[in-house]
Amino acid sequence: MRLTQNPVIRSGVLLGLIAVLGTALLAGVNALTYERIVEQEKLRVLQQFNALVATTSYNNDVLNDRIDIRDEAFFHHPEPVAVYRARMDDKPVAVLMTVTAPDGYNGDIRLLVAIDITGTILGVRVVSHRETPGLGDPIEIARGDWILGFTDKSLLNPQGRGWAVKRDGGEFDQFTGATISPRAVVKAVHRTLLYFKANQQSLVETAAMAANPDEN
Fold first, then answer.
1. pLDDT (0 to 100) of residue 212
2. If you average pLDDT over residues 86-115, what whole number do you get?
3. In whole angstroms, what is the distance from residue 132 CA to residue 113 CA?
4. Mean per-residue pLDDT over the chain, rounded
5. In which order are the strands placed within the sheet that holds 91-104?
6. Cis before 158? omega within 30
7. b or e along 128-162 (b: 16 or more beta carbons within 10 Å of the residue's beta carbon)?
8. Which of 188, 187, 212, 186 is nearest to 81 (CA)?
9. What pTM value is reported for the model?
10. What is the pLDDT of residue 102?
11. Could you point out which of 76, 124, 125, 133 has its C-alpha 20 to 30 Å from the C-alpha of 141?
12. Which pLDDT band holds residue 24 (cuts at 50, 70, 90)?
């Protein structure tokens, strides 16, 4: 008896062929859509950038003027922080940093923090979170204007202990029945400002300058 005449073996061969064809089809679809997905992601990042940094303030390609950094001592999270740099005629104008507050009520709160060259916040936005609906979600711009309270803030405004929610003696409001979410965001934004102050030169310098730090 030929092996392919055995129904069990025949079924196994057919299943194997289907699996191979399915994998090949999936790989083909991924290859065809990958470039489109990448372009959509770039467009999304650019829209977010321009919501916080005025388009008239820079003239470089911000999507390609990017570095990734890691510093768990500052950011308390292992994921890299993407830093997009805005320049006007090669002069640094602002940075947009993608940071994560790891201590939200239900885990990570992902943020965009835009800071101008003077260390002043241009804006903050929450891009994703899993906070309790109705309690922690007012951190979103779509749910309220709380997040707008960071605009024009800096390490000098407020100073020191002012970078906390009011319940902890600071200047930022918390929500009724929800302190953990705003506390996590305030701490993450404050850490981002501290990092910017300590590492401003390396954050804004161009690739050429980074490669030749001793040249003028």
1. 39
2. 94
3. 23
4. 85
5. 66-69, 81-88, 91-104, 107-116, 121-128
6. yes
7. ebebeeeebbbbbeeeeebbeebeebbbeeeeeeb
8. 188
9. 0.78
10. 93
11. 76
12. low
